[in-house]
Amino acid sequence: MSELELIEACIQNDRKAQKMLYEQYHRKLFVVSMRYARSRADAEDILQDSFVKIFQNLDKFRNDCPLDGWLRRIVANTALKFYSRKMHQTPIDDIENHYETVSDTEFTISQYNFKELLGLIQQLPLRCQMVFNLYAIEGYQHNEIAEMLEISEGTSKSQYARAKQTLQKMLTGKQSAVTKEEYV
């Protein structure tokens, strides 16, 4: 069955086709949800909510982009909505108030395994984690992130710089865990 046929069958509520779509993409999409989640249970909830949205909105897929990109966007948006209340309760710091700079020294992450990196990303403060994922992994620009998270573009840049700096410290062993007090 081609991808278009699979999509059409899912739109027609064909349970076998829906299961096929789920089986084909759930692992990839779970990885996306884990990058945004604070725990495995949250990631599972995000993934479940995402698939509900996917099946409800599959008729809106226009085939003008790859299906997996469209699905990943749904997971990312679902994760953002999942944490939106918590993020609005988190104090934010605009770039003008952020004087720490990220080291110009580049480091390679290829020596770290995926689980280690994921664990470090999940330790970031929530807003930093969301901005880091959206910018560094999903490829959104800061103006887009600012709109999605309802923050200023400067705040997006500041949160990204803070996330990058914190990850560099953790990866070089200078900091074993992030403490909330650093970000209040």
Structural class: mainly alpha
Number of strands: 0
Percent in strands: under 5%
Give the ordered list of helices and strands. Answer: HHHHHHHH
CATH superfamily of the largest domain: Winged helix-like DNA-binding domain superfamily/Winged helix DNA-binding domain
Rg (C-alpha, Å): 18 Å
Biggest sheet record: none
Compute the number of helices.
8
CATH topology of the largest domain: Arc Repressor Mutant, subunit A
CATH class of the largest domain: Mainly Alpha
Identify the CATH architecture of the largest domain: Orthogonal Bundle
Name the descriptors.
single chain, 184 residues, mainly alpha, Rna Polymerase Sigma Factor, Chain: A, Arc Repressor Mutant, subunit A, 8 helices, elongated, disordered C terminus
List the helices and strands and how they pair.
Blueprint: H1 3-11, H2 15-36, H3 40-57, H4 67-89, H5 114-123, H6 126-137, H7 142-149, H8 153-171
Helix pairs in contact: 1-2, 2-3, 2-4, 3-4, 4-6, 6-8, 7-8
Note down, in words, how this protein is organized:
The structure is a single chain. With 184 residues, the chain is an all-alpha fold. It folds into two domains: 3-89, RNA polymerase sigma factor, region 2, helix turn helix motif (Rna Polymerase Sigma Factor, Chain: A, Orthogonal Bundle); 95-183, Arc Repressor Mutant, subunit A (Orthogonal Bundle). It is 66% helix and 0% strand. It is built from eight helices and no strands. It has helices spanning 3-11, 15-36, 40-57, 67-89, 114-123, 126-137, 142-149, 153-171. The chain is elongated. Residues 89-108 and 175-184 have low confidence and may be disordered.
